[in-house]
Design goal:
Layout: E1 5-6, E2 9-10, H1 11-40, H2 44-72
Antiparallel strand pairs: 1-2
Length: about 80
């Protein structure tokens, strides 16, 4: 069986690297959007905190999943 190589990595390694890099970039961009939304709406410190808590909760789940996988050694 011939193994496909992309940029010196196997396809599985390339996909895993791209997933981590691109999702990290997406999470960073979403944090910027939440911060910009809070700034433009003049939410104040408490409002900004609640916006990050409410809108950022899904991002926390993704990060927590990766940490749990590393801690338990599932991967």
């Amino acid at each position: 069986m011939i193994e496909t190589v992309v940029f010196g990595l196997s396809v599985e390694e390339f996909e895993e690297l791209c997933l981590k890099v691109l999702v990290t970039g997406l999470i960073t961009y979403m944090c910027f959007i939440i911060w910009n939304l809070a700034r433009e709406s003049k939410a104040g410190k408490t409002g900004t905190l609640w916006m990050f808590f409410g809108l950022g909760f899904g991002m926390f789940g993704f990060v927590a999943k990766e940490l749990i996988i590393k801690i338990l050694g599932i991967h």
